[in-house]
Specification:
By secondary structure, the protein is α+β, with helices and mostly antiparallel strands. The chain contains 3 helices and 6 strands, in the order H-H-E-E-H-E-E-E-E. The protein has helices spanning 2-15, 20-24, 45-61, and strands at residues 27-35, 38-42, 66-76, 81-91, 97-110, 113-121. The chain has a 6-stranded mixed sheet with strand order 2-1-6-5-4-3, with helices on one face. A hairpin with a 2-residue loop joins strand 1 and strand 2. The longest helix is centred in the middle third of the chain and has 17 residues, at 45-61.
């Protein structure tokens, strides 16, 4: 199951090159995102897409082109749930490191597919 979660997170990373709609596919509806002191309930796919449209715009303005996984820790929480904590590197066009951050993702598997229920940024 750890390998499945890791593959899910790798696919999630890759979705950032395809835009907000692709990113939103990895989230459950509803889901909760917590970042920079703001707790947001995303009731619909459209809400999640809107969030990631804003995130994508902000990241791109900072020079972001892609992300890399620096570390991943998976804690299994039962037959269909897991907590994945991921340290991310945010990279620019010339492979320069722009910034790093850590997120935790509460995941649930339903009908064989993992989805993010809660995303929590580890605020610095």
């Amino acid at each position: 199951m750890r390998e499945d979660v890791t593959k899910f997170i790798e696919a999630y990373r890759d979705a950032f090159s395809r835009g907000p709609r692709a990113i939103a596919e990895f989230y459950s509806e509803p889901c909760v995102t917590v970042r920079m002191g703001v707790v947001r309930v995303n009731s619909t796919r459209k809400d999640t897409e809107t969030l990631f449209t804003d995130v994508d715009t902000t990241y791109r303005a900072r020079g972001f082109t892609h992300g890399e996984i620096l570390g991943i820790d998976v804690e299994l929480l039962g037959a269909n749930s897991a907590l994945a904590t991921v340290q991310w590197a945010y990279m620019g066009a010339c492979e320069e490191l722009l910034w790093k951050t850590t997120f935790s993702y509460n995941l649930y598997r339903r009908d064989g597919a993992w989805k993010i229920l809660v995303q929590t940024m580890h605020d610095s």
